[in-house]
Design brief:
The longest helix is centred in the first third of the chain and has 19 residues. Among the domains are: about 55 residues, no CATH class; about 60 residues, no CATH class. Helix 3 packs across helix 16 and helix 9 runs antiparallel to helix 10. It is built from 16 helices and 11 strands. A 5-stranded mixed beta sheet has the order 9-6-5-10-11. A two-stranded antiparallel ribbon has the order 1-2. The chain has a two-stranded antiparallel ribbon with strand order 3-4. The chain is an alpha+beta fold.
């Protein structure tokens, strides 16, 4: 027996259940599939079917749109219906024309008439779900890549997903979030006070749009409770709950310090909380970290062992085989918290290197350790106690938050504001706050754009 499958939309009276209108959207011949390609609907067919269903819903729904006019806004007289005007509406997967009721003033001397549109009624002709998707793509990928991704999702090219439109919207949403993030935040109600939190601060360089400058630095902070680190496998760990703070503003770290304080408070930091902070040794990172001191119980600053070990790796070629054990001895003493002895041993090693270039590399390592001596701890002891001493234990957040978006799109150069705005969205996504809090900034940005 042969079959066909009909996709039908019915308009039904709720009270009587009488079918007022029936439309057959699509008829499918049902046959035995000869290949996996014939099993179910192809991508393009699915999008086409969704578009037809959407059109059926909009045809009925659009006639019920209230334009906000009960009487003439000019003279106050009664209004007369004057048919419908077509208006653009961009859904997530398809574009449509909706019919919106027009009105005309009955006063012959007034002659006012309405020209409604989805934008005039709702503030935008773009569905917020589509705008959310555009912002996510624009924050995670280059704007042209975002356009391509959305084109592949909907099968065909849509002008609403043009990369320039994605750029403008993403920037506007980021700017809205940046302003919102500037508001001082108390520890949120219902958030349990944290006995201890861990803070990691690092920086990443972003190509500068100013031709006279190569790049500028953006800072990133990740705050989490130690108990929120979970093991993925024997080699990897993951933070299940965290708060991020990011800034690319050139304002002497004022924005970054406020954002970091807010992020710490989201994690439950109060003046009863002990804070352990990790950084790579850059003074701007320490400055951000030290700004938390008045807001917590204690603040322990630690030079990140991962970055420290990388410094030793970079100078290994500066010593001959005969001195390699001496360099390892310096590292061993640092690992065991003997920073004074480590610096003395490193100084003796420098004096035994005759090559000026090699000695210069060792001198840079010496200066790095000396400048950060206050933040050198007994790493071996912390390791034995299961306490944090390196950012690598949790994750490399700079690579995922900053470098993935800004350093790997080589043709793109940025202003401080432009990069800063993108970072706000990336921070919300990384903090797992985006899906709950996207509506207000996205709808606000759509209204501004319209």
């Amino acid at each position: 027996m042969d079959y066909e499958l009909r996709v039908v939309v019915e308009k039904v009276s709720v009270s009587s259940q009488e079918v007022l209108k029936r439309d057959t959207l699509k008829v499918y011949d049902i046959k035995s599939p000869e290949s996996i390609l014939e099993l179910g609907l192809r991508h393009e067919e699915q999008i086409s079917l969704l578009e037809k269903i959407q059109n059926s819903v909009l045809a009925v729904q659009s006639t019920l749109i209230k334009t906000g006019y009960d009487v003439c806004p000019r003279c106050g007289d009664k209004l007369k219906k004057m048919g419908f005007t077509p208006s653009k509406f961009h859904a997530v997967f398809s574009d449509h024309k909706v019919r919106i009721q027009k009105h005309k003033c009955l006063n012959p001397d007034c002659k006012w008439q309405s020209t409604p549109s989805t934008a005039s009624v709702f503030g935008t002709c773009i569905h917020p779900d589509l705008a959310k998707l555009q912002c996510e793509q624009g924050a995670l990928y280059s704007f042209r890549k975002a356009e391509t991704n959305l084109e592949q999702l909907t099968v065909h090219r849509r002008p609403v997903n043009n990369h320039n439109k994605i750029k403008l919207l993403t920037n506007e949403v980021g700017a809205t979030l940046a302003q919102e993030n500037l508001k001082p935040l108390a520890t949120p109600k219902g958030t349990a006070i944290a006995q201890e939190i861990t803070l990691q601060v690092d920086g990443g360089h972003i190509p500068d749009k100013d031709k006279d400058k190569r790049s500028f630095e953006a800072l990133s902070a990740v705050v989490y409770r130690p108990e929120n680190i979970i093991e993925v496998d024997s080699h990897h760990r993951q933070i299940k709950d965290k708060s991020c703070a990011l800034s690319a503003q050139d304002d002497e770290l004022a924005t970054m310090k406020l954002f970091t304080l807010n992020a710490a408070r989201k994690q439950g930091m109060t003046k009863k909380t002990k804070v352990t902070a990790l950084a790579d040794g850059a003074q701007n990172c320490w400055s951000v970290i030290l700004s938390l001191a008045p807001h917590c119980k204690t603040l322990l600053c630690i030079l990140d062992w991962f970055h420290l070990a990388m410094r030793f790796q970079n100078v290994r070629g500066a010593v001959e085989d005969a001195f390699e054990k001496t360099l390892e001895g310096v590292k061993w003493k640092l690992w065991h918290g003997k920073s004074d002895e480590a610096l003395q041993k490193l100084e003796l090693l420098m004096n035994n290197i005759t090559d000026s270039k090699k000695r210069s590399k060792l001198k840079k390592l010496y200066n790095y350790l000396e400048n950060n001596q206050a933040y050198l701890v007994n790493y071996e002891e912390r390791d034995q106690q299961g306490l944090s001493y390196t950012s690598q234990v949790a994750e490399s957040h700079i690579d995922t938050i900053i470098n993935d978006r800004f350093k790997r799109t080589k043709k793109m150069q940025w202003t401080h504001d432009g990069a800063h705005n993108i970072l706000q969205i990336r921070g919300m996504i990384t903090s797992n706050e985006w899906n709950e809090n996207w509506q207000v900034p996205v709808i606000s940005a759509l209204t501004v754009a319209a």
